[in-house]
Queue: 3 jobs
Job 1
Amino acid sequence: MKSSIAIALLVSTLPVCAQDLEVLAAETRETVLPVVPEVVAAMQDAMAREGVAGAIPVCRDLAPKLVGKKREETGWVIRRVSLKTRNPERATPDAWEIVQLADFDRRAASGERPETLEKSEIVSVDGRPVLRYMKALPVSDVCLNCHGPAEGLDPELRRKLSETYPDDRAIGYVKGQIRGALTVKRPL
């Protein structure tokens, strides 16, 4: 009995093989990434009905609610983060996320397609294994309406953005740059 417990403990401490990591990453991807097109569709709808400024509540309120719903369904920590935050309280990356975002920027600048950039890794958090997963969110045409070069933003929109986000640093992007990422901490 003692030897089977010892073997089970030993096996549980062995590193996860690449195949297992890919299965975990695929499950995570399939679970959380459907939130992204939901947010984009809601943003496009709000812009069509109310103009660009009408989409501000989609990013500020609806996107976090959709992410929160996935958090509640899964028990995973799921967030949107960025190196240039619009809302520092919700979107400031931790140390692991900063490294991955910088790597995404480097890889995109080297010619990798931004929409393919992701990272998955098993790390130890408080002595327990956790899957860290991150998927880059590149700037698309719809994003440029609020995140593009400052000189191209409508003055009324800029005023509303500064009212809503007094510490906004999330402008000046061009299409294809990494705006941020969807990030997951999944206990194993």
Job 2
Amino acid sequence: MNHLKKAVILAAGRGTRMGNLTDDIPKPMMKVKGTPILESILRGLVANGISEVMIIVGYRKEVIIDHFGEGEGFGCRVSYVEQVTQDGTGKVVELAKDFAANDPFLLSYGDILVPADSYAPLVSIAGFDGKLTVKINEDVRKGGAVFVENGLVTDLIEKGGEDAPTSPYYNAGIYVFSPIIFDYTAKLELSPRGEYELTDAIKAQVDDGLKLEAVELLGDWADVRDPDILEELNS
């Protein structure tokens, strides 16, 4: 199956950097120009042919579930899984194993805002084992540096320090995985930050010779990570 039908959105966190703005709602439900970030993501995915969406919920999950229901009114089927233990992005992906079954799927963080057409090059996995989105000219110390040769990911470094190797490519937080990703998340060990890192599983795929395409996002892109960015987007 070349055209993706399934997507997973990670929306379990509170977003502590948002301070009291997330006292009553999880960060992905904060509004940018009048629409919850999560709704903008979902509508963008549906516009590109995604018909089944799983939202991984946690903090204030009822706000998300009440808003989206089973997807009626959004043009897709929505289901939910709760992340009970906040132990990193690597293990949270495993919650999607039954949902994905034998199909490839798109995965997005619930605070990454892009125009709908940014998903267009991601909804087919033909010829690759997976895809990873990158942006140019972002500060790679705030996220991850991705190393690319001939359009393929060769390495990635998660939130490197001052001395870490740098790359012009910043990990943009939207991925496409084939079900083989679950073989790699199952083998993850705790990182120095004390978490299971999704990027370690991706790096292990690359080290094993799997072909992961680096897809550069050309349009607007925002990681709504703090109140300053939220204010900027709404101004």
Job 3
Amino acid sequence: MKINRTTIASTLVACTITSGANAVDELPQKQWQFDVALDGKPIGFHTFELQQDGPKQVLTTEASFDVKFLFVTAFRYRHQNTEIWNDDCLLSIDASTDSNGKQLEVRGEIGDGGFDLRSAEGSEVLPSCVQTFAYWNPAVLESARLLNSQTGVYEDVTVTFEGPDQVSVAGEPVDAFRYRLSAKAGDITLWYSSEDKTWLGLEAPAKGGRKIRYQAVVVPDMESSQQIVASRN
């Protein structure tokens, strides 16, 4: 994927890595930065940062959405999450969500008998290799179950390849493959670079038949391990 653009001020998030990730190696990190729209109207941003810690990967993510009606905030959403991965399996998760005043937390780590999970749903032991809805990792396209980092529900999913497509990244068209991930909340459309399977965007259902769209502003260049940083007019 080749996009020649200059640097912008990021409107999306820089997440704080928790103490368990303080030893992250000083290697070039990969970033995804998305502007988020509801039925075409901007509501906020969602960012992802991925760093290497020896054989492990540390992902930090933050989302901030505000849906306004007549200049009044009708819905407010904040989400922060730190995940540690190894060999496409989740080692730990530490997620907090404020969904319009409703506080949700999901905590978990790998244990002797599997993945020990604690959430509003209670405590349970999941299989030893669990994956979240980690769209940044194309391995999720092969998964039959994914952990919802907001609710703590371990959901059945199906993934269907829908064919070649094009998607805009920072205003530039990029050749992509389109997938449909069917989950409890509905069908999620995902786009990945046809060159290297870099995640490029998504569209998901919202209440009332509305649509949430993630428009990529920054994505990693997987071949050079450098950031593709875009400028917006």
